[in-house]
Amino acid sequence: MEVQVGWSKLLKMGAQLVGHKFQQYRLSTGHTVILDTNYGRVQGLQRKTVYDEELYFAFEGIPYAKPPVGDLRFRAPQPPEPWQGVLNCTTSRSKPLQRHMLSGIVEGSEDCLHLNVYVKTLKSEKPLPVIVWIYGGGFQKGEASRDIYSPDYFMKEPVVFVSINYRLGALGFLSLKDPKLDVPGNAGLKDQVMALRWISQNIAHFNGDPNNITLMGESAGSASVHVMMTTEQTRGLFHKAILQSGCALSEWVESPDHNWAFRLAQKMGYKGEETDADVLTFLSKISGRKIANSDQDVITTDEIRSFLLFAFGPVVEPYESDHCVVPKRHKELLSEAWGNDLPIILGGNSFEGLFAYQLLRGDPWVMKNFHNILPRDVSEASNQDEQDLLVRRIKKHYLNNEVQESMDIFQALNIFSHRQVWHDVHRFVRARQTYAPTTPTYLYRFDFDSPHFNQFRRLVCGDRIRGVAHGDDLSYLFYNVIATKQKKSSMEYQTIKRMVGMWTSFASSGNPNCPELGTAKWDPIRVMENDVEQCFNISHELEMRELPEADSLAVWDTFYFKENLF
After folding, report:
1. For 356-413, how does the pLDDT look when each residue is reduced to its tens digit (9 = 90+)?
2. Under 8 Å between Cβ of 482 and 455
3. Could you tell me what percent of the chain has a pLDDT over 70?
4. How many CA atoms lie within 13 A of 527 on its CB side?
5. Is 391 within 8 Å of 349 (Cβ atoms)?
6. How far apart are CA 554 and CA 566, in angstroms?
7. Which of 60, 110, 218, 352 is catalytic?
8. Are 503 and 512 in contact (CB under 8 A)?
9. In Å, how far are 270, 519, 534, 545 from 550, measured between CA atoms?
């Protein structure tokens, strides 16, 4: 039976499991305000931040495109229809259809192309800088909601904050080769393009500066930001970028062609031939909820063990169209990307691989099969002897033993940190040094290990495991349903102030240095004499230092010919 259950209810369950006491935080004054947009009038609600109850305005569920239903399913979004009267935007609307990461229950709606605008003040001496947020979730999960990404911390600063929904899974990334069908893939990325166009054209109505927009994302959202920096569809629509724990060079951002659409149709009862038109006709008649319930099941265990983590994600589009966003492999677009002219913040967390803790605990096979660790493009370009040599190199570096037959779970998670996130960040840094040598690139490493406030690690690993996992930085940027108010004397609150201070300072001026850093200074990236990047390490203390992962990343560099690194 298909049931809709909200994130908030299930995260409250998760909060109870890790000892959090859920608290109500949706404070509002009850005061409403009506603004114009290019498509019609919208009514928002005045709310209060969780700390100090400072006021801000929230406009939620604004449509930035037509509902992607009927003939628009799987296809590029279309501009929204104007509306009459005043659209009630005082509460959020449906999230994209998806299977919930904790319960497996299908939730959301196909009619999901909405965005939220939050603004500190509607009148100021000059328009406010704008931050646009793209959520992560592997292109399979996620939502732009206050349950997960409440803007409370940002709303203590003079900024406009925008969060956008985009389609996920097969509904957002199904790709067919037949150009007559107009389903080349990447509809979810094209949703982001459409949202950026809407923001550029409308944000001035909300006291935002259309000439000072910063695009920001984490994980798949960060990879999306990188794609937006390379596609010509978005040239000039934003002016700075913040990329947290992901980029478009990661192999999980480039879905290989494994006949996914045909396999999905077969999974749902299709008996016909592998013909794009027939597959599309079949899938167009299936309910979106059934597609969202099945699109992750077409991938095999062996494919997952080879780090092919999901079937439906970004693809190199099989033909070019007027809405194409990925005409070539991402690394082939880097040298001439318009985003080379944009200042960026780029980085990750010190123990990214902890995100896979539950996965590895349930599949010890992975910890005995080192050949699957090799990056896919490296493995495909190597013969067996060459692969054996690379595996021995991995064992020597991480295990200090070239013949050891297996690794423990934390050795594996450390390798995953570098394979899945840090080496691709490192490659992007090197690409920036080559193709954007005079444009500021600020590299960071988030290493604040709170025993109780690193929320993703606690949900995935419990309280006994320590380390700063993939997603833990978000605890210090967004309030959510499992967050608790921290004492203002705590390091957790201090870290919130630092993170929001740096991110909003960068959004305002292109420079993350701000009063919250005290005497610390964050310098743009440069390479030391020994060819090691310096990063801004964010922990209890703040400091510029050599990237601690540098020795490991140098080993991964040796897997590639230099010209293939980026």
Report:
1. 998 888 788 888 999 999 999 999 999 999 999 999 999 999 999 988 999 999 999 9
2. yes
3. 95
4. 12
5. no
6. 14
7. 352
8. yes
9. 49, 26, 9, 11
DSSP per residue, 342-355: S-EEEEEETTGGGG
The residue type of 183 is V
How far from the centroid of its chain's Cα atoms is residue 429's Cα?
A: 18
For 479-530, write each residue's pLDDT tens digit.
999 999 999 999 999 999 999 999 999 999 999 999 999 999 999 998 655 6
Tokens representing residue 231 in the block: 């596609």
Burial group, residue 81, by CB count within 10 angstroms (0-12, 13-18, 19+): exposed
Please return the burial class of 201, using the count of CB atoms within 10 Å of its CB with bins 0-12, 13-18 and 19+: middle
Among 200, 219, 350, 417, the active-site one is 219
Task: Please report the pLDDT score of residue 360 as a whole number.
Answer: 85
Token pair for 157: 């600063």
- Whether 533 is catalytic: no
Which helix (H) or strand (E) segment is 391 a member of?
helix 384-399
Contact between 214 and 506 (Cβ < 8 Å) = yes
Quote the pTM value: 0.94
Supply 184's token pair. Answer: 């080349």
Tally Cβ neighbours within 10 Å of residue 34: 12
Give CA–CA dist 270/273, Å, rounded: 9
Q: What is the band of 26 on the pLDDT scale with cuts at 50, 70, 90?
A: low
The DSSP 8-state label assigned to residue 315 in this structure reads -
Region 7-370+417-517: CATH code: 3.40.50.1820
Strands 534-538 and 542-546: antiparallel
Nearest Cα neighbor of 538 from 485, 486, 488, 473 is 473
| Residues 124, 405: Cα–Cα separation, whole Å | 64
352 is an active site residue: yes
